[in-house]
Amino acid sequence: MTKKVILLFLCIFIIGLFVRLYNLQFRSLWGDEAHSLYISYNFYEHNFRHEKISFIETFREIYQAATINLTQDSHLPVYFVLLSFWIKLFGPSEYILRLLSVIIGLSSIPLLFVFTKKYFDSKVALAASFLLSISPLLVMHSHEIRMYGLLMLFGLLSTWCFWEILNNGEKVWHKIGYLVFSLLFLLTHVYSLLLMASHFIFWCYYCFFNKKIKEYIILPLLLFVAVLLASPFYIKMFMLNFSNVISSQAEMAFSVFPWYTKIILFPFVLSFGETLAPWSFFVVMPVGLAWAFLLLKNFKKANNIKIAFLLILVLFPIISSAILLKPTMPKYLIASFPFYLILVSYSLTNLKTKPLKYLLILLIVFGSLISIKNYFSLEEYHNSNQIEEWKTVSSIIMKNKQAGDIVLTTSHYINFRIINYYLNIIALSGLKIYTLHQDLNKPVTLINNSYCMFDYKKRVYPINNITAKRIWFVEHIADDKVFPEGYINNLKQRISSKYKEIYQQDFTPYGKTLAAKLPIKRHSIEGARITLTCYSLKI
């Protein structure tokens, strides 16, 4: 490797490092991130404080989360085990939580570079690692307290070992690596099955043309063992959640689109990230054509075994999920993304017309920068849950709280857990925080014909018996999915009989979000994602 290549790669890595560490805490935690946090550390048992616990206690909590909590809500354990140890070692601050994802995301850059250089050349490797470093999708998921960066990392490692066995089958470490990384991959996210299926499809293709089934029979055997070892988690998860997933398909953002449009939409999100509106035509049209041209150019070289392998790794997960798996979100396919970048980089570096090459590079960089700009300025987010202003809401309560105040949240899953995180776990405010939703997994009902609130130990407090001087009431746009029709309005009328409203503010108007402009009518366009109201006891 020449000094020039090393220097160029270091520049690429520094760019990736900067864009991932820049303003790491500019967004609040959102519902799924809070879920990751509460799965990984049982704050309920520790009175919503981060307490130092022994490694034995950590293992106990992890085992409970991995075997009970995760399989009950369609999650697999590897990321949460890692996050649990991370929290134990470094604490639960927002910066620390996001830093784990930054490290995972950064580690993919040199890994992709070395993998691509070995099987292609330095030019393709530099191009692929550069596109990875400025990818809007990966910048976002290098900040998210979720498993998607780890899913991509293990998918790349597993695929690398798979390819090494085909080319250097006698080395035992490649076989051990394939088994270990495939198992970790399978236990990170259920959509890992699609890339594993792609491995098997390519193995069949490779053996058919090379007539060497016996020589490479070890690969499907190792894959079978990995699936077998992961199967207890999958069996339990599917038994507990299959009907729930099927019944909630209409709630998934991309499920409203027909399959043939998703075959285009999925690569669109992989290319542009989740912070660019499809109707931003001045960016989408030229940049989208650049991505599409470079990808489709590879079909002319599909007889090249390496290109064929990469095409299968990219196309099979996209096409099969678009046709067969209605709830699919594009981020579930992130494990295929590195191979998509290699294909694009291969076409780009092999273009003989330099003006065209430079034009395509400029277009792709331009599109990535626009999407990254939108990401940091909270514009054109596909998922408006990710721009909810929970830190602002919590800081208002924190700055204006008085002795005798309580906080009453609506839903347990979102409001109660996020407000508790910012006010009690981080700020140590000592405020008593209640929820109208007793249990994450049970619908809301009246208790003895009375409106009630609950603390974190699920103790019941009738609303009519509240004696607090002031109530900070936090509502969320998803309350219409959690509570019976009219429940919240009737409750507010009960509160107003004893309290007067002294403050009210809406945050993140739903009508201004990208979701409100799509054919997904989840909520009223007139509403806000969060509403904060302060009530004071009438004298």
TrEMBL record:
Tell me which residues make up the Glycosyltransferase RgtA/B/C/D-like domain: 75-234
Q: Name one GO cellular component term.
A: plasma membrane
Keywords from UniProt, A to Z, are: Cell membrane, Glycosyltransferase, Membrane, Transferase, Transmembrane, Transmembrane helix
Superkingdom of this protein's organism: Bacteria
Any single GO molecular-function term of the entry would be: pentosyltransferase activity
Where does it live in the cell?
Cell membrane
Q: Which GO terms describe its biological process?
A: lipopolysaccharide biosynthetic process
Q: Tell me the protein's name.
A: Glycosyltransferase RgtA/B/C/D-like domain-containing protein
- Span-the-membrane segments of this chain are 5-22, 95-115, 147-166, 178-205, 217-240, 252-270, 276-296, 308-326, 332-351, 358-376
- What membrane topology term does the record carry? Multi-pass membrane protein
